[in-house]
Amino acid sequence: SRNNQTLAWDPTGAEALLDYFASKNYTITALELGNEPDLDPRKGRSNVTAEQLSADFDVLKNVLQQREQQLPIFGPDVAFSPEYLKDFTQNQSVSTKTKIAAVTVHHYYGNSADFKLANFLNIKTLDSLQDKLQELQDAKSSLGNSPMYLGETSSTYGGGTANLSESYAASFMWNDKLGTAAAMKVPVVMRQEFALGRYSLLNDEFMPTPDWYFSYIWKNLMNTTVLSVDGMLDKGRAVRSYAFCAKSQASRHMSFPLQQGDVVVVIMNVQNESATVDIKMTSQASTRYEMHVGPDCCGVLSPNVKVNGESWRVGSDGSLPLIKAILGTPADNLTIPAYGTFFAVYSNAKAAACL
């Protein structure tokens, strides 16, 4: 809550929450202060200036010091305004500058009430993320090396677009966002939200949406090391590619091996025609494990996915689908169908960046 006159933040509620966590022996990873402060006037709330919010961070830090708790603090979680973020970072006191562990921002491609299927499949829509991230990174530059996190993000704001945000069509936004954020050195992407929203990872029946299945593939295959792909941040790409080091070993959800030095490539064909792709690598691989992902039915409006022609479902016992691959020859060209997504693990590549 805030003081009605000064708008200074009252930490009483935060202290009660910290007390509750302590009573339950919960582990706190980090604390975040702020939620779209740049939208306060639009939401009918009093305007909290960047200067005031900066002072609030000092209050939170003092609360933690009095409790002898050392926790990372994130913020200010701006909705979209680089101007507000720049004012906030410039208003930070010298002591506070070293205390913000990560600058958090939000991102959505547009208003859920306005977006149609064509917007979800529009290349310019996907390209817009890069411009917004660059604006926000420039705005927070006065905080030096503090990383920028996507503290809240999905397809469209306002809860998501009905029948689209939970469909296969939205997966291009999600996959491209993960690739673009990584390529632009945004190390953390926090998805909005897990369940009970039109843009959730789980639908109203608590079953996975296509974005959940793609997240499942990313989490099992990709390491955090981003590899260079020619033109991976060029504008106007209908075929969009990103590459990463693979994880050093396969999880129990996979039917094929992973090892240190392997490379993972993800390619999206965001157009209504097939594309032939020739992948040239600076290192040689012995085997290519391929996963061809597409809609299960109903075209891009499908609420589910197929992987290598197999429909993915969660088992009645809650078991997750096994991530299986078909074997390909590393030197062969790829044909990716219209609106198809392709993952490949180049096994035994021994990529220097991944060793």
- Form type: globular
Mean pLDDT metric: 94
> Nearest-angstrom radius of gyration?
22 Å
- State the separation between the terminal residues, measured CA to CA: 50 Å
What does the model show?
This protein has 355 residues and is an alpha/beta fold. It has helices at residues 12-23, 50-66, 82-91, 94-97, 117-120, 123-139, 171-183, 210-221, and strands at residues 31-32, 73-78, 100-107, 110-111, 148-153, 156-157, 189-191, 222-227, 239-246, 263-269, 275-277, 287-295, 305-307, 310-311, 326-328, 334-336, 341-347. Strands 8, 9, 10, 12, 13, 14, 15 and 17 form an 8-stranded antiparallel sheet that branches. Strand 13 and strand 14 (310-311) form a beta hairpin. Helix 3 packs parallel to helix 6 (123-139) and helix 6 (123-139) packs parallel to helix 7. The longest helix is centred in the N-terminal third of the chain and has 17 residues, at 50-66.
From the structure above, extract its key features.
355 residues, 5-stranded parallel sheet, 8 helices, 25% helix, globular
Write the layout of secondary structure elements.
Elements: H1 12-23, E1 31-32, H2 50-66, E2 73-78, H3 82-91, H4 94-97, E3 100-107, E4 110-111, H5 117-120, H6 123-139, E5 148-153, E6 156-157, H7 171-183, E7 189-191, H8 210-221, E8 222-227, E9 239-246, E10 263-269, E11 275-277, E12 287-295, E13 305-307, E14 310-311, E15 326-328, E16 334-336, E17 341-347
Parallel strand pairs: 1-2, 2-3, 3-5, 4-6, 5-7
Antiparallel strand pairs: 8-9, 9-10, 10-17, 11-16, 12-13, 12-15, 12-17, 13-14
Helix pairs in contact: 2-3, 3-6, 6-7
